[in-house]
Amino acid sequence: MFDIERWQEIFETIRKNKLRTFLTGLSVASGIFILVILLGFGQGMQNGIAQEFEDDASNRIVVWTQVTTKEFKGLNPGRSIQMRNGDYDHIETRFADQLEGRSARFRVPNAMVNYKKESVGYSVQGIHSGYQQIENQYMSQGRYINYEDHRNVSKVAVISNTIKREIFKNGDDPLNEYLDISGIKFKIVGVYGDRGGEREEERIFIPMSTAQRVFNGSDRVNNLYYTLKPVENLDQAVAESMKFSNDMKRYLQEVHTVAPDDDSAINVFNTLEEVKRFFNLISGIKMFFWFVGICTIIAGVVGVSNIMLIVVKERTREIGVRKALGAKPWSIVGMILHEAIFVTAISGFAGLIFSMGLLEVFGPYIEVDYILNPSVNFNVALSTVFVLIFAGAVAGFFPAWRAANIHVIDALRDE
């Protein structure tokens, strides 16, 4: 039942102690504000990391080779390891049930690219058709390199949006035009874009077989690229991806006579392992943010408790009079609790509204390294406020219970 007299008492007490009430409320509001902002930036970090890995396929596995650093089976260290088409074909066959995307890559050495009288300095790379999915590329015009191009050793090329803008400055259609690559004509069949940005668009792609045969690549391969079929959860995906990486590396070490503990000769980069590591780091940071925010809230709740103790002390004589006139202990408790809950609730919701408003207004415009659109789940933030109100009630209960148990004679004697 709504008791207007009690609310009048609460507002009268607040009016008499404006500064004290304001500072107490400020400490509570700042606790919620800090917690929500910290949680928002924690989510922003997760969004930023997720976007970084969205630039390429999230389960991408890349293999490259260098030189051996250890003696093995009578072979001296310092040998250059060169992967071949046979390595790619064997892995593709052996792990066919696990693979979703696959491609080898051969970088054409010292390629000179010309269009009519204009020369451009871009990398030329031979790839298989699966490279588009692995690099998360999209087609702006035409088509990508396909299996028939590879099988027929076709002299076709796919250029990027960046290269198109540089070469075809007048907005001409590049399809079916010819590029001169080291003296050999290649027909442009497509224009691609890369979600990784312009830094990923400084490459011209041609069929792998064409790159190897026309540019004296023999059967050499510079890199192997793979993606695995999706599974139910991240932990399972990481486990299967790591097993595939280890099995593939072990096979390549055996074929190329590399010591099992030589970590330099054959290198495998597993994107999922990096994703897992970053997400674990972010989870740790979020836990730290929760810890800092909760400690700040506890400080505010302690402030509420202290203020209620002061209120009880100041109103000891009044409480004695009430009890002498027949006031029940629980009515005394309710009087003190109402004030504690009111101050905590108003302050908590003020901190929540202010912090959520800031994130809503400015969050979408925050795009710094590894932080994107800081935000927080409203239900989580609202639940935190209700927990805070409950904590405020607990903080106010003990001073209220002390007030309810004051002996009438001692209260009336209080100066």
From TrEMBL:
<keyword id="KW-1003">Cell membrane</keyword>
<dbReference type="Pfam" id="PF12704">
    <property type="entry name" value="MacB_PCD"/>
</dbReference>
<feature type="transmembrane region" description="Helical">
    <location>
        <begin position="21"/>
        <end position="41"/>
    </location>
</feature>
<keyword id="KW-1133">Transmembrane helix</keyword>
<dbReference type="GO" id="GO:0005886">
    <property type="term" value="C:plasma membrane"/>
</dbReference>
<dbReference type="InterPro" id="IPR003838">
    <property type="entry name" value="ABC3_permease_C"/>
</dbReference>
<dbReference type="InterPro" id="IPR050250">
    <property type="entry name" value="Macrolide_Exporter_MacB"/>
</dbReference>
<keyword id="KW-0812">Transmembrane</keyword>
<dbReference type="GO" id="GO:0022857">
    <property type="term" value="F:transmembrane transporter activity"/>
</dbReference>
<feature type="transmembrane region" description="Helical">
    <location>
        <begin position="378"/>
        <end position="398"/>
    </location>
</feature>
<comment type="similarity">
    <text>Belongs to the ABC-4 integral membrane protein family.</text>
</comment>
<dbReference type="InterPro" id="IPR025857">
    <property type="entry name" value="MacB_PCD"/>
</dbReference>
<keyword id="KW-0472">Membrane</keyword>
<feature type="domain" description="ABC3 transporter permease C-terminal">
    <location>
        <begin position="291"/>
        <end position="407"/>
    </location>
</feature>
<dbReference type="Pfam" id="PF02687">
    <property type="entry name" value="FtsX"/>
</dbReference>
<feature type="transmembrane region" description="Helical">
    <location>
        <begin position="332"/>
        <end position="358"/>
    </location>
</feature>
<protein>
    <submittedName>
        <fullName>FtsX-like permease family protein</fullName>
    </submittedName>
</protein>
<feature type="transmembrane region" description="Helical">
    <location>
        <begin position="287"/>
        <end position="312"/>
    </location>
</feature>
<feature type="domain" description="MacB-like periplasmic core">
    <location>
        <begin position="21"/>
        <end position="240"/>
    </location>
</feature>
